[in-house]
Design brief:
Radius of gyration: 25 Å
Structural class: mainly alpha
Distance between the termini: 75 Å
Strand content: under 5%
Order of helices and strands: HHHHHHHHHHH
Number of helices: 11
Largest sheet: none
Length: 247
């Protein structure tokens, strides 16, 4: 029996639909290109230490996508570096508000937002709020080296001794060192400070020697040398709430 069924013709896509698809595609590629250009410009400005240019680029990014928490968080970091702590905390507040929804399935990114606000709170002499943010950051991402280090550092070096929990600081710093493979000088420095806070200067000096061996830039080495001098004099490390750098 012969099959006389004719093959169905493929539906034609109208010229208008094709034109619309092309326009949307071009617009999308142009958006991606502009976004990449802005990110490159932001990186260049930060490398030059030009915070004014960086803020200008971030404002363009903010205007382009008001719902991006990372843009606000980055701007909050620059305001903190410029010691405009009111603006910094305001931006971090807004970033977290957006991030709770945007990063619902990416808690590591939300964790970073809390960590950054915590540092700004510390710089603004709001230590308890800073500690609360570090705790929240750690609860959202238990693999974070930065939050563990920040929390441990504050719990053993803050000028307000009522905040000190040196035993917990040792626990947190030890885990941070393990997570970073004992290659991050800043976290080992924190562990040394935590041991010093308990009065165990012998162990503190051992850890500080490891920190100095792991240090990879002259500024960090200068800071660690200063800490070592205190430890060799049986003095704990008590500093203003400026955290050691950590990757």
């Amino acid at each position: 029996m012969t099959d006389n069924t004719q093959p169905q013709a493929k539906p034609k896509v109208s010229a208008y639909v094709m034109a619309f698809i092309i326009i949307v595609s071009i617009g999308w590629y142009a958006f991606v290109a502009r976004d990449m250009m802005r990110k490159n410009a932001l990186t260049a400005a930060l490398k030059k230490g030009d915070s004014t240019a960086a803020l200008s680029v971030l404002q363009e990014m903010r205007d382009s996508d008001p719902s991006d928490p990372e843009v606000l968080s980055n701007r909050g970091e620059i305001y903190r570096m410029r010691t405009n702590l009111t603006a910094s905390i305001a931006d971090h507040n807004a970033a977290i508000e957006l991030g709770i929804t945007a990063y619902e399935k990416n808690t590591a990114k939300l964790s970073l937002l809390y960590l950054r606000r915590g540092v700004s709170y510390l710089a603004a002499d709001e230590a308890e709020l800073g500690l609360a943010d570090f705790e929240e950051s750690l609860s959202l991402d238990d693999k974070t080296v930065q939050a563990r280090n920040a929390l441990a550092w504050t719990l053993c070096t803050h000028p307000d001794s009522s905040l000190h929990e040196p035993a917990r600081a040792i626990e947190l710093a030890t885990k941070a060192c393990e997570l970073s493979g004992w290659k991050d000088a800043a976290t080992i420095d924190t562990l040394a400070a935590a041991h010093a806070a308990t009065g165990n200067f012998e162990q503190a000096i051992i850890e500080q020697e490891k920190a100095l061996a792991a240090a990879d830039n002259s500024l960090l080495i200068t800071i660690l040398d200063g800490h070592m001098k205190r430890l060799l004099s049986n003095k704990a490390i008590i500093e203003n709430p400026v955290l050691p750098e950590s990757p």
